[in-house]
Amino acid sequence: MLTYYFQLGLRSLRRNPALTALMVMAIGFGVAASMTTYSVFRAVSGNPIPDKSAQLFTPQVDAWGPQQNLKGGEPAEALDYIDAMALMRAHEAKRQTLLYPVKVSVMPEGDHDMPLAANGYAVYSDFFPMFDVPFEYGDGWGAQDDQTHSAEVVISERLNQKLFGGANSVGRTINFGGHDYRVVGIASHWNPHPRFYDLFDTDYFADEPDFYMPFTRALDLQMRTAGRNSCRGKLTFTTWQDYLQSNCVWIMPWVELGSATEAARYRRFLENYAADQQRAGRFDWAPNVRLRDVMQWLDHEQVVPPESRISLAVALGFFLICLVNTIGLLLAKFMRRAGEIGVRRALGATRGEIYAQYLVEAGTVGLAGGVLGLLFTALGVSGVGVLFPPEIAKLARLDPSLVALTFAVAIAATVMAAFYPAWRAAHVQPAWQLKSS
């Protein structure tokens, strides 16, 4: 019977083309507006590392005090050198890393090639297994290499293509800023959005890093951060060592904790560490620490752009208006056939069968609206750069999941909108209709 009702629905679409066109256009425009803005919202608000987001935490230790810290008494969003290295030496977590962005010039092979500017990160060896970084060739360096300050580097697939034509370059030598490094791994395309591990910088949706180098090696070379550097109070340092001993925060810490028990234990460690610093006279305020996992950190940093939330709310409101208009059009369409409904009821059709017929008919309208909505969604996704910054606009994609969602929303919303018109149609009185006819 559903197949028969579907055929009736297709005939009904052709019976009154003007009314059908209005409904299809209302559904199509409403779905397209919603799906276009949702594609952006999904890209910027999704879980960037779903398999491990509840196991990765960023610790914060207040090194500024209540007079200098952030709004609401929050500690700084990163650590200074003293606290960062103290956490690393304590090694209270299963895995741990420090990181900060660096920028270097890369000298390609060949006498006539110009140097390339490359952006990357100084990290510890645990960075790669912690964040599940995929490799095309080779692997990351080991903990022993961190301790010996080895001159090794992991480069991205993109940089490997520029320098070595995409070949397996493990074991080759690269010159970064006048210093030679041995390539130990080529990372496959890996660029989680947003870049959760470095929210201290403001470009959450930048292109993937070109390389990763040992944190200890970067410190040996006195490589300044290419990202934010936030300090408080009077700045009197003039040398690299003075800078390291200052309260300037520029290092992002991450730890991997496998359970809630481990997280609670690590939080106590942070509190005890801050208390020790207070007793030693370095802090003259009560311990003020935080420990947030990935999703809590994203929420705290308010990574989702407000314009994406606003545009999604406006689009959903527009879709709701389209559905209200569709309800009126369906009601008019169904009640025009009150005589036909009366005859069917008189011949023995149940109200349930009337419901089924008209809901399936509404579903055909939704299907047609979904086709139109998909076309408009494709246009909308290609033009989101008008409303959003380029680094965000490029994340919106019309992938198979969005195509399926577009059809599902169009059909489901239209069927839901048809419930009241179908109820009115199912309650037509057969005797009155036969008499009036």
UniProtKB/TrEMBL annotation:
<feature type="domain" description="MacB-like periplasmic core">
    <location>
        <begin position="20"/>
        <end position="221"/>
    </location>
</feature>
<keyword id="KW-1003">Cell membrane</keyword>
<dbReference type="InterPro" id="IPR003838">
    <property type="entry name" value="ABC3_permease_C"/>
</dbReference>
<dbReference type="InterPro" id="IPR025857">
    <property type="entry name" value="MacB_PCD"/>
</dbReference>
<keyword id="KW-0472">Membrane</keyword>
<feature type="transmembrane region" description="Helical">
    <location>
        <begin position="401"/>
        <end position="423"/>
    </location>
</feature>
<dbReference type="InterPro" id="IPR050250">
    <property type="entry name" value="Macrolide_Exporter_MacB"/>
</dbReference>
<feature type="transmembrane region" description="Helical">
    <location>
        <begin position="310"/>
        <end position="334"/>
    </location>
</feature>
<feature type="domain" description="ABC3 transporter permease C-terminal">
    <location>
        <begin position="314"/>
        <end position="430"/>
    </location>
</feature>
<keyword id="KW-1133">Transmembrane helix</keyword>
<dbReference type="Pfam" id="PF02687">
    <property type="entry name" value="FtsX"/>
</dbReference>
<protein>
    <submittedName>
        <fullName>ABC transporter permease</fullName>
    </submittedName>
</protein>
<dbReference type="Pfam" id="PF12704">
    <property type="entry name" value="MacB_PCD"/>
</dbReference>
<keyword id="KW-0812">Transmembrane</keyword>
<feature type="transmembrane region" description="Helical">
    <location>
        <begin position="21"/>
        <end position="41"/>
    </location>
</feature>
<feature type="transmembrane region" description="Helical">
    <location>
        <begin position="355"/>
        <end position="381"/>
    </location>
</feature>
